[in-house]
Amino acid sequence: MKKDIIKSNVIANLVFKKLTLIVMSLLLTTFVMVGSLQAAKIRIALAETPSDELAAFFVALDRAKANGLNYEWTAFADEELAIQAILSGQMDIGFGTPYSAMQRSKAPVRIIFQLSKLKFFPVSSKKYSSLNDLNGQPILLHSRGGGTDSIANVIEDKLGIKFGKRSYVSGSSNRIVALVAGQADATIVDMSNKNKLVRTHGNKFNVLPMFDVDASDEALFANLNWIKANAKDVDIFVKALLSVYQDFHKDPTIIRRETNPDGPIGQLPKEVLGELDGFYTEAVAGGLYDPNGGGEKAAMADLEWYHKAGHLTGKLSDLKIDDFWYMKPLKDATK
To answer: Domain limits of the chain?
Structure first.
């Protein structure tokens, strides 16, 4: 009887130890899984290297990080590469206006925030004084299928002209360098570089009259399945962007004041940092950014613009906003 009791106790102890090991193993596995989830980073694809135009974006990233967003970013050589990185799953969320790719691709890519509008300006040597003068003349643009390419298409459509050879150099500042060096006679550049050109070489170049555009130049986009699977992080990101955009519309100096001196923008040349207040003051006055992140107004303007530019095919009336934009994160951020 005593031996049976001892034997039972031994068996019970062995069972208890095994159960303890199983429970500890499950707990460890859970901790590892949770740790992995917390350690996962959002991979952001930039369509260009950090510049004054991206200062507000990096301020938003800092705010998002303070609220728990874990991220890393990669600057691609141009917008097409950034778009392909999203389509292939190499990156999670990116910059650009991938309307043509969205229509062609089977991947459910959607835009969630308008980062900037197509506020670009045709500039030229003194050889030309109007857009009509560029009929048959070569022009330097940002990237094939990008914002300046679409502007050139719409200019041709509206004015009934046809540009000559199109060459591509990414970055408005680089195109200004080419213009000043005499390597090009006409290009299309952003507001910041147009203003710099006028200030430094205004007597040598012309800013050609241009019609207003409300469509997106840069927008934040990702695969819809990824957006829904990472809704918490996306919400943090969009809320941070919206707060920054609304804040600098009230006070443009907030971008300089909140820029991390050790971050990618803080490492830019002093002359660039010294002009941040001026850049964002001019940008707000010029309507470069929508303080509300674009939304349906931007989506409608985009469909009309990129359809006219030839990036979207079919009838304009058949194009649906929901096939290109996912509004939930922006609507949730405005509540």
So the answer is: 1-34, 41-117+215-270+284-333, 120-207
